[in-house]
Specification:
Pfam family, one: DinB
Strand content: under 5%
CATH topology: Four Helix Bundle (Hemerythrin (Met), subunit A)
Order of helices and strands: HHHHEEH
CATH class: Mainly Alpha
Distance between the termini: 53 Å
Family: Belongs to the DinB family.
Binding site for a divalent metal cation: 141
Keywords: Metal-binding
Strand order of the largest sheet: 1-2
Organism: Chryseobacterium glaciei
Helix content: 55-70%
Number of strands: 2
Length: 163
């Protein structure tokens, strides 16, 4: 009997993936900064959530999810744990979670990126796909923020200026 080995070619290193994600986080932080305080918490279009709610969702995913992955602990998604009242609180928590992401991401071995993990007890995918979901979700919500800023007459930052 003949066996065939599958060779996996690496497209991107874990360091490059983290740099890519943090580039998106830098840009999203700048979008948060651009909102006037009142509109950050109140403005919406077509029934979508205000951008503060979207930012809280993003804050509630990245660091907590990576912590769960590192500790192999499936925990339910919890957006209600953080209820900011000011833009300053959101930005402070954003920065704290950025540091948590850096810490936990760097604790994931290359082999673990291929392991399946049940994110928040809901989505069972390989770790790398969960991380790509975090980035995709952020880009999606930042797009909503761009729409809000434009509707408010504020020119958002260029999407390619991530650093």
């Amino acid at each position: 009997m003949t066996t065939t080995a599958t060779i996996t070619k690496q497209f991107i290193s874990s360091e490059q993936l983290l740099e890519h994600w943090q580039g998106h986080r830098n840009l999203t932080r700048r979008v948060i900064e651009m909102f006037p305080e009142k509109e950050l918490f109140e403005f919406s279009i077509g029934g979508m959530r205000p951008f503060a709610k979207l930012a809280v969702e993003l804050i509630s995913i990245g660091g907590p999810a990576l912590k769960g992955i590192v500790n192999k602990h499936e925990e339910a998604f919890n957006e209600e744990a953080f209820n900011p009242k000011t833009k300053e609180e959101i930005l402070k928590k954003w920065d704290e979670e950025t540091q948590a992401i850096n810490q936990y991401f760097n604790e994931i071995s290359e082999e673990r990126f291929q392991e399946t993990f049940n994110l928040f007890g809901q989505y069972e995918f390989p770790v790398y796909q969960n991380i790509l979901y975090f980035v995709d979700n952020e880009v999606h919500h930042r797009g909503q923020g761009y729409t809000y800023l434009r509707a408010l007459g504020i020119e958002p930052p260029f999407f390619w200026e991530r650093f």
